[in-house]
Amino acid sequence: xxxxxxxxxxxxxxxxxxxxxxxxxxxxxxxxxxxxxxxxxxxxxxxxxxxxxxxxxxxxxxxxx
Length: 65
Fold this sequence. Notes:
- The protein is of the alpha+beta class.
- The chain has one domain (12-61).
- It is built from two helices and two strands.
- It has helices spanning 12-24, 55-61, and strands at residues 29-34, 40-44.
- A two-stranded antiparallel ribbon has the order 1-2.
- Strand 1 (29-34) and strand 2 form a beta hairpin.
């Protein structure tokens, strides 16, 4: 059998430090992805596509209803 990759998820403390650093830099975090290799990936809110509003939602958001 070949060598297997060791699974090393990041600790909660490492994730918390990463989030604190990103927020300190002014990022708006929409999501977090962690990998089995210990990687931490933050998804910024601007990277998440916005939902298209239908006519009712648009008028309601403008206060016209």
